[in-house]
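Table S2 (continued). Query chain:
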Amino acid sequence: VEEIVWVRPQHVRDRIECIDGNEQLHLRERLLPLVHLTRALEGRSAASDEIAERDYKVVVVRAGRTQYGLV
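Corresponding output:
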């Protein structure tokens, strides 16, 4: 775990975007792929290209050279 980021609903449109059906977090001038644990554990993909305006509490982790955010 590298850090925890809290994206409040009013900042979602500026900080999170959907690229090819995958949510990405803008974090310090780079895009960080987001992995929704519930979806991953249930074997589901993202429901749509629509980004929900809600709190996003993101745990930023690194595995080797790969960095991503767990939601």
